Amino acid sequence: MKASSDFPSINAKEADGLKPEGTPYKILIVDDSIFVKKQLSQILQSEQFDIIETAGDGEEAVEKYKEFYPNVDLVTMDITMPKMDGITALEKIMEFDKNAKVIMISALGKQELVKKSLLLGAKNYIVKPLDRKKVLERIVMVLKRT
C-alpha cells in the first residue's frame, strides 16, 4: 500500500495560517452566530490558523482580546451583535491596542457601518455569506501587511 508521501503534490504550498517561522497565526473569532463562528473556524483551521478563542458579542470580544493580548494576531468581528456591537468593540480594542488587526464581517447593505469601522481602525472587511477564497485572501493580506 502506498502512502500519500509516495505522491508528492505538484501544487504543494505552505498553509496560509503559518507565520514565516512556521508557527500558526492566532485568531479570535467574534460573531453572535454559531453557524458563522463554525464556518470561519473550519475555513481557517483548514489552513492551519490557530483559533485561540471565540466570542459571541462585543463585550466578550474586548475581554478575550485583553485576556490573550499580545498573543492575538487577528480578530474577525461581526458588526451586528447583542450587548455591544462590533463597531463599539472595535473602538475599545483599538483604544487598548492601536496596532490591533481587526477584520469586520458584515451582511450586505451595511456599507456605512463598514466605512465607519475602517475609519476607526479596522484593516479590512468581509461580506456575508462567507466565501472561503475571499476570507483567506483578506485575512492573509492583513496579516502579511506590516
What does this structure look like?
The chain has 5 helices and 5 strands; from the N terminus they run βαβαβαβαβα. It is an alpha/beta fold and 146 residues long. The protein has one domain (24-144): Response regulator (Rossmann fold). It has a 5-stranded parallel β-sheet with strand order 2-1-3-4-5, with helices on both faces. β3, α3 and β4 form a beta-alpha-beta unit. The protein is globular and about 40 Å long. The relative contact order is 0.15.
CATH architecture: 3-Layer(aba) Sandwich
Q: Which fold name is given in CATH as the topology?
A: Rossmann fold
Distance between the termini: 46 Å
Bulk shape: globular
- CATH H-tier superfamily: Response regulator
Q: Structural class from helices and strands?
A: alpha/beta
Secondary-structure element string: EHEHEHEHEH
Question: Which residues sit in consecutive blocks of at least 5 with pLDDT less than 50?
Answer: none
Q: Describe the main β-sheet briefly.
A: 5 strands, parallel
Quaternary organisation of the protein chains? single chain
Strand content: 15-25%
Determine the fraction of residues in helical runs and give it as a percent range: 25-40%
Outline of the structure:
With 146 residues, the protein is α/β, with parallel strands linked by helices. The protein is built from five helices and five strands; from the N terminus they run βαβαβαβαβα. β4 (102-106), α4 and β5 (124-127) form a beta-alpha-beta unit.
